[in-house]
Amino acid sequence: MEGTTTAIVVVLSLAASYLAVSAYIASAAARVRRVPLVFNAELPHEEVSFPSRTDNLLLRGWYFAAGPDCAIIVNGGEQNRVDPVTGTLDLTADLVAAGYSVLLFDLRGRGESAGQGSILPHNDRDVGGAVDLVRLRGHRRVFIVAFSSGAAVTLALASVENVTAVVSDSCFASAREAFVRELARRGCPRALAYLLSPGVLLMARTVHSLDRIDPEIVVTRVTCPVFFIHGQSDSGVPVDDAYRLFKAARNPGNLLWIVPGAEHTQSYRTCRGDYLSRVTGFFAEVSRTSGRRVT
How far apart are alpha carbons 37 and 52 in whole angstroms? Predict the structure, then answer.
């Protein structure tokens, strides 16, 4: 009997240690450092600030007035509103030249926005705050162009919010797989990352409501058209994730474009003209019709 009790205590201790380590890793993997805003926009713009939804964190950005329809750009990873890798300033200039107003802003804990930065948790609240701002500016049609983890939280927002359309660029399909890749990127052996991933995911779901922002889950509830874009040579998120998301989504107006030779979030940089033409063509078609696939 004493041996059985000892074994139970050992098992419970190991389980508690596993969950404690998992909780720590879940928080550490989600956190991002603040990257200062070191660039400025050359186009005429307005400095704006607005609250995130629910927790009312103060977010900051630039608003470019150009036309009745507005595109919100959402960065990914640790980047702020000016992402030179993706080319958010150039994309903004191209969209403004095409007649779209643009909101370019910092997610929480990035650039000039308040709060602790995180890869996924609560960022959908920030996107929701951005949508609220442009609607207050009188924009009836709201498009969102989002990259990587920014695309993941945008899809989560679009699953409960009536936006006009979403461009999802380089989004991952599974939060668990994304966590494993992130742990491996930060130096954790992949075998250990897989061993820890069930606990990490459990803690992330419990503490951060991760199921709310798991793309393969939430995309099934997105009713607006989504244009999935993914680089064929993406070494950060497998190109197969784009096919998985496109298959899971249910809107017949959705599109998928696999960009030859493009790395992670590099499709715009790789073929700028084609990218802009396809994205603005998608916006125009969605504005004209609903439920019909763009050719």
Answer: 19
As to burial, measured by CB atoms within 10 angstroms (0-12 exposed, 13-18 middle, 19+ buried), residue 46 is exposed
Helices (DSSP H) in the chain: which residue ranges? 2-30, 88-97, 123-136, 149-158, 175-185, 190-208, 215-218, 240-248, 267-270, 272-288
| Phi/psi of residue 257, nearest 5 degrees | -135, 115
Architecture of domain 48-174+214-288: 3-Layer(aba) Sandwich (3.40)
pLDDT of residue 194: 63
- Percent pLDDT > 90 in the chain is 59
Mean pLDDT of the chain: 84
Query: What secondary structure letter does DSSP report for 230?
Result: E
Indicate if the pLDDT at residue 258 is higher than 60.
Answer: yes
Residue 256 to residue 202: CA distance in whole angstroms = 31
Sequence spans of domains, the chain? 48-174+214-288
Q: Hunting for tokens 């380089």 — which residue is that?
A: 170
Contacts of 35 (CB under 8 A, 6+ apart): 78, 79, 80, 110, 111
> Comparing C-alpha atoms, which of 170, 198, 196 is closest to residue 184?
196
Q: How many angstroms separate the Cα of 273 from the Cα of each of 123, 146, 210, 281?
A: 30, 18, 36, 12
Tens of pLDDT, residue by residue over 113-157, are: 998 767 666 788 999 999 999 999 999 999 999 999 999 999 999
Please report where in the chains the tokens 């966590």 appear, as a residue. 179
Phi-psi region of 245 (alpha: psi -120 to 50; beta: other; left: phi over 0): alpha
Asked whether 92 and 86 are in contact (CB, 8 A), the reply is no
Percent of the chain past pLDDT 70, that is, above it, reads 74
| The predicted structure's pLDDT at residue 178 | 67
